[in-house]
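job 3f2a | input accepted
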Amino acid sequence: MAEHSTLAEPEPRDAAAVRHVLQSMGVETYEPRVVHQLLEFVYRYTSEVVQDAALYAEHAGRKSGDLTAHDARLAAKLWSQRRFAPPPPRAHIDDVASVKNATPLPGVSPTPGVRLPPTHM
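job 3f2a | predicted structure (121 res):
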């Protein structure tokens, strides 16, 4: 009869590092899946940045395995620009808000019942 081991498997070093980052940022409770999702993001990010850096090194006339810190910085910067859109400038948001807020709200109807917005705005 086979016995099942009750000893927990040791945690992978990368998962322990993610847990340490979460703890150092003050995150005390989280689902176990959070660590797996963050690990997946880190692996995907790292592999894409390294692949891009290899292409930049090759384009610069070096072997694709001969990466420099400049290649990695450039690849990381361009990766983040492709993936994350920067927020619009504060002045633009203020302009849009002032135009929107210049339109007065419709008056409240004194009749009882459900108040629906007008059919045209």
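job 3f2a | Residues 1-5 have pLDDT under 50 and may be disordered.
job 3f2a | closed
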